[in-house]
Write a structure and sequence with these properties.
Length: about 90
């Protein structure tokens, strides 16, 4: 319920962005990231770090060293153990 006050602002900020979450199997930080996104009422298209699409992201300069990586098409919004508070700030910026 803490994040409910931020949802309209975040939703407005995300209207023109599409989130991508790069994950790996059996990754507890990846599962945590999905929970954080769900708690904020956000959806992200999940791609496996071993996929061709992830390789394309890496070639384009998206760092994939610490998973998960949350990408909005322009910048990395978070990686590793995602912080709900920090993610809210990033999305509202």
């Amino acid at each position: 319920m803490r994040a409910s006050y931020a949802r309209p602002k975040i939703r407005q900020a995300m209207e023109s962005r599409s989130l991508v979450l790069v994950t790996a199997p059996d990754c507890h930080f990846c599962e945590h990231a999905k929970e954080v996104l769900a708690g904020l009422g956000l959806e992200a298209r999940e791609i496996d770090v071993e996929s061709r699409e992830a390789a394309d992201l890496a070639r384009s300069g998206v760092p994939l060293a610490f998973l998960p990586v949350l990408w909005d098409g322009e910048r990395v919004l978070g990686y590793g153990r995602l912080s709900e508070r920090r993610l809210r700030r990033e999305l509202a910026a």
